[in-house]
Predict the structure.
Amino acid sequence: MNNLKYIFVHGLSGWGSYDEQYERMPYWGMRGGDLIKKLRNEGYDCYSASVSPHGSAYDRACELYGQLVGKRSDYGKHHSERHGHERFGRDFTGKPLIEELNEDTRLVIIGHSFGGATIRMFAHIMAEGVKEEQDYDCSDFFKGGKGSNIFALVTIAAPHNGTTAYDLYQDPDFDPSKVKTTVMERFAGKMMSRNNSSGAEKLPYDDCAAYDMHIDNALRLNERLKLNENTYYFSQPCNGTERKGNDYVPRKDMEVMFSRTSRIMGCYSGKTREGFVLGEDWKMNDGLVNTISSTYPFFNEHRDFDENEIEKGVWNVFETYEGDPCPYRVA
């Protein structure tokens, strides 16, 4: 189809084409060059979205819609009052991401890491709307009925089911400080933590990325988000670790700022606050997301990817990518 538009949505602490940082260091490609430009040169109509670095999947979805239609981001009256923040956010009036979003537009949306949660929420609202917002003068986004615009969703190392990177710190039976890490890992880990928390403390505790990535919260979200029978869904799980004894440790090619978190996650098994059991199969990870979590959203129908029989309305899950999925290495 020659009318497809490919929208790339970054992960936690990321940035897109609306941000000054993108010119200096494109999120998609980074050291390997600008992936978006490369794909455009090959004939793909590609765009890099800019959403809140630490915002919730819901708020980021609203911002994505604002960009696509060239309007100010509207989080909805009901939602903004419930969570105690401003109703309107970043203004994209006069500078839409794509030329036009109309009934003929077909979107292929690619989300990396928490960008995967963002695009799932976006596709759900496009199709189903948000009933609570329809009682007010609301954005067209919340009215739904736009599921046909979503041709395909593609997630890369997405925390479909949350991540133990957040939950393990709330488990009283596990002490992360007892996991041995290197000096370099601790130093790089502090830098990553500082980057991931910068500005996040100003967000409502229950309306931010950190809240959405807790496993109990992610599983509740999975029960709400419906699959569209006319949309293609693809998921790329990733693993950057190798087994060592009973645990998993980061491989040498993992980006160092994720190594400490990866090493701690690779030692952890336990349970969430609400009692969801996290067994040995939750130890394998990519540095921030458990591999099992990046396969497919629990409670959603799924199948192994088969290039000869790709189905709509189910998750087509690729074979696990063994390597570092960090966009630093996208080329």
